[in-house]
Design goal:
Structural class: alpha+beta
Number of helices: 3
Radius of gyration: 24 Å
Strand order of the largest sheet: 2-3-4-5-6
Strand content: 25-35%
Order of helices and strands: EHEHEEEEEH
Shape: elongated
Helix content: 10-25%
Number of strands: 7
Largest sheet: 5 strands, mixed
């Protein structure tokens, strides 16, 4: 868990924090792959309605490639910016990029916010390399490591009639 005690925030208008460790240590349970190494640095600056958080997460993630399912090292470099509002304010809507914290809260847990930032910073399709060949649809061989003897012209029988069409007429 990455928690900030509010007592420190109420006495300082500009604070810097630094956390090092693994995703397991931080309790990253929303991220569905290991994060063995993370370095999180952020700064909280007092503003009118609370605090502005700006920071950077760098480290290493080990996701599975979406094509070949091989786990690989992926460098993380995530910029995080948000507003932390310390009381319920009607000036903000749920669509605003804020972390709303009730006024009587003793500490702010940033774990979910940081996990969300990691997930949003990743590409939709994570590949081990740009030209990943993936797995053979017939036998499951990782085509990056070896080839297979499966028939590549395997057409779904429901589309077989389309071969009879002549588009040159």
């Amino acid at each position: 868990m990455i928690k900030i005690p509010l007592q420190r925030l109420r006495h300082d208008s500009d604070l810097e924090f630094h956390f090092e460790g693994s995703g397991e240590k931080f309790g990253f349970n929303k991220v569905d792959f290991p994060v063995p190494d993370a370095d999180i640095q952020f700064r909280l600056i007092e503003v009118d309605h609370g605090y502005f958080l700006t920071g950077q997460l760098t480290g290493l993630a080990q996701p599975e490639c979406h094509r070949c399912l091989t786990q690989f090292d992926y460098d993380l470099n995530v910029q995080m910016d948000t507003l932390i509002v310390l009381d319920d304010s009607e000036e903000f809507t749920p669509e605003d990029d804020i972390v709303d914290v009730p006024g009587d809260t003793q500490e702010i847990d940033l774990t979910d916010f940081i996990q969300d930032a990691i997930v949003l910073a990743l590409p939709v399709k994570i590949l081990c390399k740009e030209d990943c060949q993936g797995l053979c649809a017939q036998c499951g061989t990782n085509l990056n490591e070896s080839s297979c003897d499966c028939e590549k012209e395997n057409i779904d029988p429901r589309w077989e009639k389309l071969k009879e069409l002549n588009f040159e007429e």
